[in-house]
Amino acid sequence: MRLPLLAALMLVLAGCVATTPAPPNLPQPAVDAVQPPRTAAENFLTVVARVEPVAESYCRSVGVVRNCDFRIVVDDRPGQPPNAFQTLDRMGRPVVGFTLALIADARNPDELAFVLGHEAAHHIAGHIPKRNDQALSGALLAGALAQASGLSPEEVRAAQDMGAQVAARSYSKEFELEADQLGAEIALAAGYDPIRGSGFFDRLPDPGDRFLGSHPPNAQRKALVAATVRRLRGY
């Protein structure tokens, strides 16, 4: 069942897809169920071709980070759950990754476009270096307090680890909401419907509003996407 999907995705794994995005407001097919492998692969390749240039343009215009040359990759290891992520390679190039399960699970191209825009937005807003700075500050503060309390070296290291984790999580929800908003803008500019795309939140476990949770409640995220689209469309 995966062979057609894997064959098509080799185009993405080979390098960045960079073509001119389609004009805004291009009608999208109504797909409300899990897509067959070939359809999922075709939708993914089309979404990457349209959204990536828009994301790179936004990245350059915002000017927070230097490298705006996104590389889109697919994690084709068997058994991986639906997931998407953003990271940096050894040269500092931004990487956005999708698992095969997420691509296959998408109900329509709008969901793929919104997820890609969201992950790209994490880089555009500089969330990785900001989170690293927060973690370092938290580790230093916790370590200093632990040393002042006369704790052992092992206890100081444990306090530093805890301080780093708490500090890194302090703004996680804020970062997610910022990425949702900017991701919606990117998806809309590429001709997709972010409100329809945010429907994938309905299939995610709701994190609620837990203290130091890493993600905001799903309803809050969907409301933010809808408000962003209304603002951009002027109504």
Q: Can you tell me about this structure?
A:
With 235 residues, this protein is mainly alpha-helical. The chain folds into 2 domains: 3-14 and 35-128 and 171-233, no CATH class; 129-164. The chain has 9 helices and 3 strands. It has a 3-stranded mixed β-sheet. A hairpin with a 5-residue loop joins β2 (84-88) and β3. α7 (172-189) packs parallel to α9 (218-233). The chain is globular and about 60 Å long. 35% of the residues are buried. Mean pLDDT is 77; it is low at 1-32.
Quick synopsis:
By secondary structure, the chain is mainly alpha-helical. It is built from 9 helices and 3 strands.
Poorly predicted runs? 1-32
The outline comes out as: globular
Beta-sheet strand percentage? 5-15%
Q: Please list the strands of the largest sheet in the order they lie side by side.
A: 1-3-2
Tally of DSSP β-strands: 3
Structural class: mainly alpha
Can you give the mean pLDDT? 77
Amino-to-carboxy terminus distance? 44 Å
Counting H and I runs of at least 4 residues, what is the number of helices?
9
Helix content: 55-70%
Top keywords for this entry?
2 domains, disordered N terminus, 9 helices, three-stranded mixed sheet, 58% helix, single chain, 235 residues, globular, mainly alpha
How is this fold's topology laid out?
Layout: H1 3-13, H2 37-62, E1 71-75, E2 84-88, E3 94-99, H3 100-105, H4 109-124, H5 127-148, H6 153-170, H7 172-189, H8 194-197, H9 218-233
Parallel strand pairs: 1-3
Antiparallel strand pairs: 2-3
